[in-house]
């Protein structure tokens, strides 16, 4: 029961920090320092990535009507879509093409050098510095954009160049743990003139193939042989990540309609300083 409660905590932290631009990696490192799961190092390395599937499912459930491209065919008539577009929603299909393009930098470079990046940068000091630097960046970008109107106010308005640039910002998060995948893509989108709500939504949709691919990669690397306790730990983590993600995604979308991202920038800076203080000065 103690290990299942720990898995419950990890799932909640994953669900909350995956979608807020505050770095799930940084929080997982801190949580693992104080609440260690009684599992092997290899299992934990796989577990902290695979429970992201629960967070992904929250996006799928909330935005199903936006991300599912297939439609029932309609009878032909005046103005009715013809051919392929009778079965596939054109706007949704194009959105997925944009998501695929945005995935290319992390998919090509991030996956190839994933182990190297983890060895070089997956440590408390690098994570803390990434938290602080991107925290400052959020405060800076929101300050210079205060009062200005965004140039892009819907996913349909995103150009292929824009989504590719967002993809390179996502690559930064793949290289430097603590940057936050959602934080990097949202910040990149804001710099490119995308509205806060569109930046957040595109980040949610972009996470589906990226996080699914990362989870499958880790699971395949670990193998499908689990003890009964490991299986229960995985199930509890997935469910709690899913439920907490549902709550957090809805909260974030309501919050950014009236507020900016500065509070998350300040939070990142404070957390980064605490991480440095704990791992660098006190240990």
UniProtKB/TrEMBL annotation:
One of its GO terms (cellular component) is plasma membrane. Its EC number is 3.6.1.27. The keyword Manganese does not apply. The lineage of its organism: Bacteria, Bacillati, Bacillota, Bacilli, Lactobacillales. Bacitracin is thought to be involved in the inhibition of peptidoglycan synthesis by sequestering undecaprenyl diphosphate, thereby reducing the pool of lipid carrier available. Pfam families: BacA. It is an enzyme of class 3 (hydrolase). This is Undecaprenyl-diphosphatase. It comes from Ligilactobacillus agilis DSM 20509. GO terms for molecular function: undecaprenyl-diphosphatase activity.
